[in-house]
Protein 1
Amino acid sequence: MNWLSNFIRPKIRSIVGQKDVPENLWQKCPACEGMLFHRDLAENMNVCSHCGHHLKISVTERLNLMFDNGEYKRIDVPAAPLDPLKFRDKKKYADRLKDAQTKTGEKDAIIVASGTIGGNATVVAAFNFEFMGGSMGAAVGEGLVKAAEVAIHNNAALIAIPASGGARMQEGMISLIQLPRTVIAVQMVKDAGLPYIVLLTDPTTGGVSASFAMLGDIQMAEPGCMIGFAGKRVIEETIREQLPAGFQTAEYCRDHGVVDLVVPRAELHETLSRILGLLMRRIEADPNGGSKKGKGGNGNGKDTIAAKILSGGLSNASAAVNQLQPANEDEVKATKKAKAGQRAASA
Ligand SMILES: [Zn+2]
């Protein structure tokens, strides 16, 4: 037997080649521990077929499923100063950067792309969590500013997709400056009267949620993703209280007014197309500037709701979006009446 297993088997293996038998054909779902076949998982957009848990998805895969026909153009992000503080902990920051660049094939933790979603011009700035935990340094700030500029130039909507542990501590103060910088970037888009939508993905924490990630005209989130500033354990230790179950999940945030919509991956393209269609149509109908409050434009009932979302009634945004589908004049009038009634009653 020794002769068979020690000599013949390796010989056969070397001839056949091990590449034909990849070992990780199966993956365990982190939520339900169900076994998932890699091909099924890819076909199902990395969503568990047993429990619906949304596993992580690569940035390029996400862009493919967001843009029309998966077609988009990458936009170059201007280079940021490398390792400005000559920082080193256990390892030099410069080396960490190089490792991350080799591992991901990207320059930094953000990818900017432009294309159309439901026929609407859109610029997407998406974080790559694989790159140093999606942490936000100068290069990421640069990416968001670039995305905002391109959106304004193209008269396009801006969608930010954070997946980040927060600021990049190796860049110290320079990393923190990206917080106000990104806030100004999205404000430029809003001042131009263009929609700014945020899709929160797992995880959105720290400096990112303390800046641009919480400023969307519409805040969307992936099911089950973790959204917060500090982690649950840190908060519990600080306030010496136990936090409720499901704390800091997308669904918890929606129920408590932080998030407008929790959108399953399979419905993402369609939902974005619908929302952008409504918001952008108004901008096209009013070329003198979307920042003016819409007056109902060409008498289209949907227009007034879109204008309402853009011009401030943000807390009602998700309710308004849900009403949008088969809107006609009469329905809009009826909802308005009901809303006015509610307001009068609560006053
Ligand atoms: Zn599962």
Note: The beta strands are 26-28, 35-37, 72-75, 110-117, 120-127, 157-161, 196-200, 218-221, 261-262.
Protein 2
Amino acid sequence: MLQDERAALGAFQARLPGALGETEGGVPRAIIDPETCRPEACAAGTCLASKVCPVKAIWQPERGELPLVDPLRCHGCGKCLAACGLKAIELA
Ligand code: SF4
Ligand code: SF4
């Protein structure tokens, strides 16, 4: 995974105040740390966290790429945190 892709994801998340992070109603949302996330270390490049999300709020544009979180779908259940072996996801 290219370093500039990680930086781009971090910048993308940072541009969504109120969408990522604590949102309306105080519900926490999942945030993926692009520095810790290693899709290539997961199941053949497939994000394991995306497989357990009950509302499909995590997805990858392509296999092997950094996953993204849809803050409008995420309801902060925390299931993705348990699925990510690298602890690359947090609720905030
Ligand atoms: S399971 Fe964790 S480390 Fe693997 S791609 Fe998903 S968020 Fe990244
Ligand atoms: S916290 Fe729950 S709803 Fe949000 S991305 Fe993770 S598994 Fe999906």
Note: Residues 30, 53, 55, 57-58, 69, 74-80 surround iron/sulfur cluster (ligand 2) (CB under 6 Å).
